[in-house]
Amino acid sequence: MNVARKIIGLIVIIFFGLPTLFGIIWAVGMIRASVSPEFLSDLPQKIIADVPDKANEIFRDARDERFITDPNTRAWFDAVAKTGISPKELMEKTGLLEWMRGELSDSIEQLGLILRGERRPKPIVIDLQPLKSALLSPEMDRFLDEMLKNLPPCDEQGLKTWTEIAAQGRGHRELPACLPDPTIAKAVLINERTKVVSDIDNELELMSNVHDYPRFPFNISHAVTFAAYALFLIPAVFIFLGALVSASSPAGIFRWSGISVIVGSVPALILALAAKYFSFWLIKAGPFSWHGHWSSELAELAFDRMRWIPMRIVDQLFSPVVHVALIVGVVGIVLYALSFSVRDNVRKAPQPVSAPPAAPVK
Q1: DSSP-derived 3-state class of residue 299
Q2: What would the DSSP string read from start to end of 141-179?
Q3: Mean pLDDT for each consecutive 10-residue tract of the chain (362 residues)?
Q4: Which terminal Cβ of the chain has fewer Cβ within 10 Å, N or C?
Q5: Distance between CA 322 and CA 32 in Å, rounded?
Q6: CA distances to 58, 121, 178, 202 from 300, in Å
Q7: Taking a C-beta distance cutoff of 8 angstroms, is the pair 238, 261 a contact?
Q8: CB–CB of 217/305 below 8 Å?
Q9: Which residues, other chains included, contact 196 with Cβ-Cβ below 8 Å and sequence gap of 6+?
Q10: In this predicted structure, what is the pLDDT of residue 325?
Q11: In 10 A of CB 217, how many CB atoms?
Q12: What is the DSSP string of 317-352?
């Protein structure tokens, strides 16, 4: 009978308790990551603050043969450098930098305040018209004119390529770093810029459909995370039922529960750590850094200078899963330790009452 009970308890724990515990550890960790103000608000603000200086670095290093071996690409960046205008200065002159530091940063900050429960939920919409206006501004036109003047004259092949691009569109062809007829070059660049601007939406919604929401007197991200933690009741019920069936004493129930919780948390912890550090490896030295497999040298240079962003995103995504798995593992250790302080009274079947001895016959 005891063997049968243990088998039934193991089946409940192994096939119901442990899989749900593993899945909910990951679910809660990902929910914590996805609703945290650090991920949705603080990180984007740091990226916005970092973009202008990183753009300067990218444009400077793109002229270096150590980073860009293609002479055509380096020639374009040489022409940009000869204008005497850095990307950061161009952003400032076109109003793009003011928009990034102003409306864009403020909107993201408002999102963080709402998530922290410090502001009433309200629609947050980022107006992208200033971005489109900056790309179409007279300052941008003057910059393009100066850049074209710094290009060397085209040879016959370069002129042919420019003419074909003007007539048929660029497609996947690279613009030659030479100056054909200025009218042709300006028309091609304006056409390319118009395509980029037309692909940009007029606005970006960060939060919508919240007109009737009351102001929450608490941190919304914490409230969502707390609700997610309530999901642990599901595996807890299965593990407790399995332990209750298998064990024959209170100490045994604690011991079975503690061991089951530990066993369920360890795979989740190992997988989260493996995913986190494998992603770090991919970002640092994996396929993202292999020449010619998926991107140009310029794209790789830009990725290298902004590498901290995907690494920070990976850390923000997987670290909460690691923390949740560690917390669950500690709970399992506590339960196992408590089993040694609980009375180990084994449940015994009731014994039949023996009849009193008969009185001797005189």
Answers
A1: helix
A2: HHHHHHHHHTSPBP-HHHHHHHHHHHHH--TTPPPPSSB
A3: 84 93 94 80 85 92 90 92 92 91 86 73 86 92 92 91 87 86 88 90 79 53 79 94 89 93 95 94 66 66 87 90 95 93 59 53 50
A4: C
A5: 11
A6: 10, 39, 24, 29
A7: no
A8: no
A9: 135
A10: 96
A11: 6
A12: HHHHHHHHHHHHHHHHHHHHHHTTTS------PPPP
Strand partners, 207: 124
Counting Cβ atoms within 10 Å, is residue 180 exposed (0-12), middle (13-18) or buried (19+)? buried
| Residue of 8, 48, 41, 36 whose CA lies nearest to 225 | 36
Who's near 7: CB < 8 A, 6+ residues apart? none
Task: Give dist(CA 152, CA 172) in Å, integer.
Answer: 23
- CA angle 173-57-136, nearest 5°? 55
At residue 126, φ and ψ (nearest 5 deg) are -90, 120
Residue with tokens 């129930």: 253
Give the integer Cα–Cα distance in Å for 19 and 4. 22
Place of tokens 């040489």: 78
Residue 257 structure tokens: 């529960």
User: Kindly report the CA angle at 330 between 255 and 18, in degrees rounded to 5?
Assistant: 60
The pLDDT value recorded for residue 181 is 85
169: left (phi over 0), alpha (psi -120 to 50) or beta: left
